[in-house]
Design goal:
This protein has 131 residues and is α+β, with helices and mostly antiparallel strands. The chain contains four helices and five strands; from the N terminus they run ββββαβααα. A hairpin with a 5-residue loop joins strand 2 and strand 3. The chain starts with a strand and ends in a 6-residue tail after the last helix.
Length: 131
């Protein structure tokens, strides 16, 4: 049996793959086989739960966007190797500023997560001796 729906609590949670029996409304978690004690309409009617038809794979546009992983190394690794340390720090700071500036007008929460990702990378690069 294959999953036909997904659900999650909020944008910070991963989608959970489930199989919904259309005749009974029974919801079974695909990976674990857990049978939920409520039927599917309870999921769809709950304003705190997002539901959608099953999708095979969700691209992680923040941590591993598919268009940056076509070679043998990640694009960010190539850029870090290509630039001097100070240039790379400037690159990270520029991306932080870009995503913090545009989040309201373009991709919302996704851009805030990207800014956070670049900030975390900057923290990795800069150690206490640099302060």
């Amino acid at each position: 049996m294959t999953p036909n729906y997904q659900w999650k609590w909020d944008d910070l949670c991963n989608w959970i793959d489930v199989t919904v029996d259309y005749t009974t409304g029974q919801v079974t978690e695909f990976d674990t086989g857990y049978v939920y004690p409520t039927n599917w309409s309870s999921f769809e009617d709950n304003p705190d739960i997002d539901t959608r038809p099953f999708r095979l794979e969700d691209e992680d546009k923040v941590n591993s966007p598919s268009h940056y992983g076509q070679g043998s190394i990640e694009c960010i690794e190539y850029i870090e190797d290509f630039l001097t340390r100070e240039e790379f720090i400037g690159y990270l700071r520029g991306n932080i500023a870009k995503y913090l500036h545009r989040w309201r007008y373009k991709n919302g929460l996704e851009d805030l997560k990207k800014a956070q990702w670049y900030q975390n990378k900057l923290i990795e690069v800069v150690d206490d001796d640099d302060l």
